[in-house]
Design a protein that fits this description.
Largest sheet: 8 strands, mixed
Strand content: 15-25%
Shape: globular
Distance between the termini: 46 Å
Number of strands: 17
Number of helices: 19
Helix content: 40-55%
Structural class: alpha/beta
Length: about 525
């Protein structure tokens, strides 16, 4: 099968999984929601955003492979409202009433982290029954961070806005309670710590939804509602007006105007990555299809030294960027030292960095250990860890072992991390990991003077290889919220352009210093 055909098959599978997230709770619950005269969560988002503005949805596959619905009953993403890039978080009430499960919390926490790092206004579209009670043991403790993050955002002078369309119950009541601006829809919004049944059980008091937590009560009596909207469309209109009055200013530098399209066609990205990730490919084929064109679209740095890591300077949608891209998979000492120097240079001139992953990790073997691969790899990881400019990561192919760390994997807090359907990430390749376990087990048997079970070994290796293969695939990783989404390679330039625009909401400034580099 050709590279293109294999990638298209993976994209078909990706589209099918995304469709599950868009379907929400399924046809029955969508229809019930519509009969109540309510908009679906993505319809609310579309009306909130500026006309024809893009929406970069984040973590759409959260919860994939778990017992919960794909998407985790919430939609998160970045869109433009009245010319301001905002983090939008919308409950999907067609999925168990919008109740929060453990994956909801992970997804919302990631959205809050992105909003904080990039100084984004946050807009919550609220309709949630609170915690999904059967999973309360996995929700109660970490769930508190959701409300803490709202108050910290306000303290950091990044406004938070809550538009309440329906129930906002129990812990969910603290989302509007801790937001800077609150809009409630008349006769629809219900905000209370405990609904009528709980109040009856706790105090014996008889009450109804409206007197306990209705929108008019909160607008006229409690003061929780700042604005009373007549319907959903009006609430979204008021939300837009709030953003328009924020007098919002971006703190980062503007892009250079007049940029041109890439030298090579983005459609060719379908042909680049081999089905067998052991086969190397030239990352320049990717770079020249992603960065701005012109006479010199990519200025390669140290092209003759450490050739299995490509480094250099470019612009993307007018923004300057430094690029580190794996060429031959393995990182040697020269590549590690080259990367460390390049990262320091990018910090010196306040330039964001883009990491394009296709690495099996740092080279092993007696020759390389004696040559200092540990300390040279540590130099690269030190530089990545202490770099202060924004980092963007795209996993194109393999991203194994400490190579994932050196190339700014999730543990190293890139501002954004996306994967292609061809990507794989794990401690090491499935066959290598199974082989290591086999060698260790064989040595243990020999040390005890016991015969080794060859049939059992073959079964173990097959099982481990299958398990590691499944757990290294992009759907699994995205379901764990270890990335911000699996994307079509052809969309890479657009996605990265949005991300670069987002990171420039905040100041872009390099590190003042790095840790001790072991020489």
């Amino acid at each position: 099968m050709s590279n293109r055909a294999a990638m298209l098959d993976k994209l078909d599978a990706l589209a099918a999984e995304h469709a599950k997230a868009v379907a929400g709770g399924g046809e029955k619950y969508v229809e019930r929601h519509r009969k109540r005269g309510k908009l679906l969560v993505r319809e609310r988002i579309e009306l909130l955003l500026d006309q024809d503005a893009p929406f970069l949805e984040l973590s759409p596959l959260a919860g994939w492979g778990s017992d919960y619905a794909v998407g985790a009953s919430v939609v998160t993403g970045i869109g433009v409202v009245e010319g301001v890039e905002c983090m939008v978080i919308g409950n999907d009430p067609t999925v168990r009433g919008g109740a929060s499960n453990p994956w909801t919390l992970k997804k919302v926490a990631r959205a809050a982290q992105i909003a904080a790092e990039n100084q984004l206004v946050t807009i919550n579209l609220v309709e949630s029954g609170g915690a999904d009670l059967p999973s309360q043991k996995d929700i109660f403790i970490p769930g508190g961070a959701m409300f803490r993050n709202l108050t910290r955002a306000s303290a950091a002078r990044t406004p938070t806005i809550a538009l309440v369309f329906g129930n906002s119950t129990a812990g969910g009541a603290y989302v509007p309670g801790m937001s800077d601006y609150v809009v409630m829809v008349k006769e629809r919004a219900k905000v209370f710590l405990g609904g009528p049944p709980l109040v009856k059980m706790a105090t014996g008091e008889e009450s109804d939804d409206e007197s306990l937590g209705g929108a008019e009560m909160h607008a006229r009596t409690s003061g929780l509602a700042d604005y009373l909207a007549v319907d959903e469309q009006d609430a979204l209109r008021v939300g837009r007006r709030i953003v328009a009055r924020l007098n919002w200013r971006r703190a980062g530098p503007a892009p250079r105007p007049g940029f041109v399209d890439p030298v090579l066609d983005a459609d060719g990205l379908l042909d680049v990555v081999p089905e067998d990730l052991k086969q190397p490919f030239d990352p320049r084929e990717v770079i020249l299809r992603v960065v701005d064109g012109g006479d010199e679209p990519f200025d390669e740095f140290k092209p003759l030294y450490g050739p299995s890591l490509v480094t250099g300077w470019a612009r993307l949608h007018g923004y300057p960027i430094g690029i580190l891209a794996n060429a031959q998979g393995v990182l040697f000492s020269a590549e590690s030292q080259k990367a460390a120097q390049f990262i320091q240079l990018a910090n010196q001139v306040d330039t964001p960095l883009l990491f394009l992953h296709n690495t099996t990790g740092y080279m092993v073997g007696a020759e390389y250990e004696q040559g200092g691969i540990i300390k040279h790899g540590a130099q690269m990881i030190n530089a990545v860890s202490n770099s202060a400019v924004p980092h963007l990561s795209v996993m194109m192919g393999a991203s194994y072992g400490a190579g994932n760390y050196g190339m700014c994997g999730r543990a190293y807090d890139p501002r954004f991390l996306f994967t292609w359907p061809s990507a794989k990430a794990a401690v090491m390749g499935p066959a290598q990991l199974a082989g290591v376990l086999s060698i260790v087990a064989r040595q243990a048997a020999e040390a005890k003077g016991q015969p080794y079970d060859e049939a059992g070994d073959a079964q173990m290796r097959a099982y481990v290889e299958q398990q590691i293969e499944e757990q290294s695939l992009p759907f699994f990783l995205s379901g764990m919220v270890y990335d911000d989404g699996v994307i079509d390679p052809r969309d890479t330039r657009t996605v990265l352009g949005i991300c670069l625009s987002v990171v420039h909401n905040a100041p872009v400034r390099g590190a003042d210093g790095f840790g001790v580099f072991r020489m």
